[in-house]
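Following up on my earlier thread - several people asked me to post the actual chain instead of describing it. Fair enough. Here it is, all 212 residues.
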Amino acid sequence: MARFEDLKLLPGQPMQLEFDGYSSERDRSVLLGYRPNHSIIVTTPIINGSPMTLKLGMGLAVRLFAPQVNSACAFRTEVLHVSRAPYAHIHLAMPDTVVTGEVRKSVRAKVRLIVSIHHGPEFERQCSALINDLSIGGARVTAKHLPVASGDHIRISAQLEVSGVERIVTVNALVRSYQEEEGSCSIGVQFNEMNDADRVMLHAYVLSNIHG
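Reply from S.P.:
Thanks for posting it. Predicted structure:
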């Protein structure tokens, strides 16, 4: 458990909002700011090009990844104020507590992410592949042909998108397994080096693709 202020979130922080009475889908939002003991200000989710219609007192659950504390976070709150000027935003009640849990490297997300695999001396060779199983610590990569073997070091680049924010992430990885299948092959990789900004984006991307 923690207080919202303890998360040390910055404006632009991606958030997922689950409004009571709507489908189980999580609507994307971005933190604009907050005032301790008063309210949290976030962007209004956009549905089919228009701001979502919301009512005062509507309950919701909020989920996010707080990079400063390396934790997945969730809390219950309600809509305090809805505004369309000068842009669509809402005020949420400040929660009494926030449930936090460190994101384990074993947590996996099912995705379909096109990536570039750089391999060979100085990573000078390149081919395209698909990640369909992703975690903070590694991934399963498939392609028609991957000229690598177990024990090889490779570099993976991909464009990730979380709540409208895009970033090209690059990570060095070690090939842990290689398996040939009919018409394709797959490798299991373990992530090694990446900079802090890429690590934060990867954490947020994995979290945003875990459903249930």
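The domain at 4-102 is CATH 2.30.110.10 (Pnp Oxidase; Chain A). That should answer part of your original question.
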